[in-house]
Design goal:
Blueprint (H helix, E strand, L loop, with lengths): L6 H13 L3 H7 L17 H5 L7 H16 L3 H21 L7 H21 L6 H18 L14 H14 L6 H9 L9 H17 L3 H14 L5 H17 L6 H6 L4 H11 L2 H10 L1 H7 L2 H5 L1 H17 L3 E3 H10 L7 H13 L5 E4 L4 E4 L14
Antiparallel strand pairs: 1-3, 2-3
Length: 397
């Protein structure tokens, strides 16, 4: 429902929709994405005096700050737009606090919070010296909305504002990932995981939530949880959302590889992630030199996705696969560490000495990737006669 009339007509329309509790329409009338933002009649230089007193509080403030933001965006003054949108969110918080036992205005809250994040991002892009400070301030405004929703525990399940918590958490997760403040995600994740509504939130919001929580688990080296969350997000994501499915796979694939599950070439081709295929071949082969070459070739892709260090951890799997080849070739349960060193030199690790080789083997044994022990006296690795190199997939079950 876009609007192209005069400012007074717009004010009257917004107030009428507000008084009749039409949350979705109100949200659209106060959205920065709606067609009404292109209406020059709403960009008066005297917005505050024209709106003030013409409609109920705090709706008057919400309209004023919304229109000031629209005007600032038209003038490409993104800091002014951010300040106005931040004030708009604060007015929505005031409105939510005054609404007892009702949640029809949640769509408006979602809209102004989403717009705040996007305007903050635009302001950041134009003020690089802020270094995430604008987004950090925006997160504080989003948290104010979150607290109002989380505290609404006296309303009935159908009228509670707690139903709006997950949408806000997802906005906050997007901000914290963007400014690299992942430690701030923990209390939000706890709040959602302990919520009685965690399975009742809209599926799209659950998918977004699990995508971000899965990524955080990946960075925390909790690959089992990362696999669980990202797999849920991928499986539940709509089959036609190829862009989102590709995004999820960008993180799910390296996690799966670390757990010992290698993706098929067909899957990688389907989602245009063929960058991983050469990596799969090199890891399977235990080719350390090859892994370095692949990482150099696709360095921009891995860094841009934020998975460069995760991909580098696949070298551990490559060491395991290489040493397994040595074990199969030597066909004995007592292998000279020098044999492992020679294998490493063959795959481009020329500067690895005996002590470093011993250290690599010790780490593999500690991680359970090799069953056995090191005989330091004889400089040998004594591996188990049963299942010396357990399947990687069995280590995380």
């Amino acid at each position: 429902m876009s609007y192209t009339g005069t400012l007074n007509q717009y004010i009257q329309l917004v107030e009428r929709v507000y008084r009749t509790g039409q949350g979705d329409i109100l949200a659209r009338l106060l959205s920065l994405k709606d067609e009404h933002v292109g209406n020059r009649n709403l960009r008066s230089s005297n917005i505050a005096s024209l709106v003030d007193g013409n409609c109920v509080a705090p709706l008057d403030e919400i309209i004023i700050y919304h229109l000031l933001c629209v005007k600032a965006l038209h003038d490409k003054d993104y800091m002014e737009a951010y300040d106005s949108q931040s004030a708009c969110v604060a007015s929505v918080v005031k409105m939510l606090q005054g609404q007892k036992d009702e949640n029809w205005s949640l769509p408006l809250m979602y809209t102004v919070c989403l717009d705040l994040r996007l305007v903050a991002q635009k302001a950041e892009e134009c003020n690089h010296q802020n270094n995430g400070k604008i987004l950090e301030k925006a997160a504080e405004s989003l948290l104010a909305c979150f607290r109002v929703c989380a505290a609404d525990n006296r309303s009935s399940d159908s009228d509670t504002k707690r139903l709006g918590m997950l949408t806000l958490v997802n906005q906050l997760l997007k901000v914290y990932f963007r400014i690299n403040k992942l430690h701030l995600c923990k209390p939000l994740i706890r709040a959602i995981d302990s919520s009685p509504f965690k399975d009742q939130f809209p599926l799209a919001q659950q998918i977004t939530y699990r995508y971000f929580v899965g990524r955080k688990a990946m960075f925390d080296s909790d690959y089992g949880s990362a696999d669980e969350y990202l797999s849920y997000a991928f499986q539940k994501c709509h089959k036609d959302s190829r862009k989102n499915k590709r995004l999820i796979l960008t993180y799910l694939i390296p996690v799966k590889m670390l757990l010992g599950y290698m993706p098929s070439k067909t899957l990688l081709e389907k989602y245009d992630l063929i960058q991983f295929w050469d990596l799969v071949l090199m890891v399977k082969d235990g080719n350390l030199r090859g892994i370095d070459q692949v990482m150099e070739m696709h360095e921009n892709f891995f860094i841009r996705a934020g998975i460069y260090l995760i991909v580098e951890k696949l070298k551990i799997t490559a060491y395991r696969n290489l040493f397994r080849k040595v074990y199969l070739l030597e066909n004995t349960h007592q292998i000279d560490i020098a044999s492992f060193q020679a294998a490493l030199q063959l795959v481009g690790q020329d500067d690895v000495d005996l002590d470093e080789t011993q250290c690599i083997v010790a780490n593999l044994i500690y991680d359970g990737k090799i069953k056995g022990y090191i005989s330091y006296q004889h400089k040998k690795v004594v591996v188990s006669k049963q299942n010396a190199f357990p399947p990687l997939t069995s280590l995380y079950q």
